[in-house]
């Protein structure tokens, strides 16, 4: 089992436990420098950082975790504004946090619905080429099927070769290939 697999299964429970810890500490009025507060922040921040910026393209589960992470970040920003928690006193902060919070929440909702809740598109084609790019959010895997480009996850990318005729399940929101199988013969 790889680090990506462990992270995929452990990310959301770890973030949930960190949120529960911080929520209980918030009710007990702990000071911001308290060790328990830092443990809670790390329990949330480290898995979210790893999922969003390092491993989000490795497996289908991590792509789902990244989508949920966007939704959670947006929801947390909106809750902070709603509860009027004043982390930083600066003009325009509330407007900015609402705009960014709604954007993250909408993005996460769009990816969850479009990639994991509605039926995926079935695409049949011949793999023309495969490529990778390294960006701020880890490695991105690309596949050209006939004349259209798609993203894919790392586990599938390693199995694709130019000239393969495949049938792919493509997420509607992200245009990402999540499953492949040999295409039926004509």
Give me the secondary-structure topology:
Blueprint: H1 3-27, H2 35-55, H3 60-82, H4 93-117, E1 121-135, E2 138-145, E3 148-152, H5 154-157, E4 165-170, E5 176-182
Parallel strand pairs: 3-5
Antiparallel strand pairs: 1-2, 1-4, 2-3, 4-5
Question: Explain this structure to me?
Answer:
With 186 residues, this protein is an alpha+beta fold. The protein has 2 domains: 3-117, no CATH class; 121-182, OB fold (Dihydrolipoamide Acetyltransferase, E2P), CATH 2.40.50. The chain is 53% helix and 22% strand. The chain has a 5-stranded mixed β-barrel. Strand 1 and strand 2 form a beta hairpin. It starts with a helix and ends with a strand.
Q: So how many helices?
A: 5
Low-confidence stretches: none
Order of helices and strands: HHHHEEEHEE
Number of domains: 2
Distance between the termini: 38 Å
- Overall pLDDT level: 80
Tell me the structural class: alpha+beta
Largest sheet: 5 strands, mixed, barrel
User: Main sheet: which strands, in order across?
Assistant: 1-2-3-5-4
Shape: elongated
Computed over alpha carbons, the radius of gyration is: 20 Å
Helix share, percent: 40-55%
Strand content: 15-25%
Number of strands: 5
Task: Supply the key terms.
186 residues; alpha+beta; OB fold (Dihydrolipoamide Acetyltransferase, E2P); 5 helices; 22% strand
């Amino acid at each position: 089992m790889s680090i990506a697999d462990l992270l995929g299964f452990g990310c959301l429970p770890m973030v949930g436990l960190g949120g529960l810890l911080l929520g209980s500490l918030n009710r007990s009025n702990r000071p911001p420098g308290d060790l328990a507060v830092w443990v809670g922040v790390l329990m949330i921040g480290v898995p979210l950082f790893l999922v969003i910026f390092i491993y989000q393209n490795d497996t289908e589960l991590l792509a789902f975790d990244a989508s949920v992470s966007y939704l959670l970040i947006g929801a947390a920003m909106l809750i902070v504004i709603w509860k009027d928690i004043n982390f930083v006193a600066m003009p325009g902060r509330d407007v900015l946090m609402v705009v960014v919070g709604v954007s993250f929440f909408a993005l996460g909702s769009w990816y969850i619905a479009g990639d994991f809740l509605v039926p995926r598109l079935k695409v049949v084609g011949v793999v023309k080429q495969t490529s990778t790019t390294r960006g701020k959010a880890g490695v991105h895997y690309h596949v050209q099927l006939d004349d259209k480009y798609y993203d894919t996850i790392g586990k599938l990318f390693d199995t694709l070769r130019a000239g393969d005729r495949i049938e792919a399940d493509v997420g509607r929101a992200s245009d990402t290939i999540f499953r492949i199988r040999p295409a039926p013969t004509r």
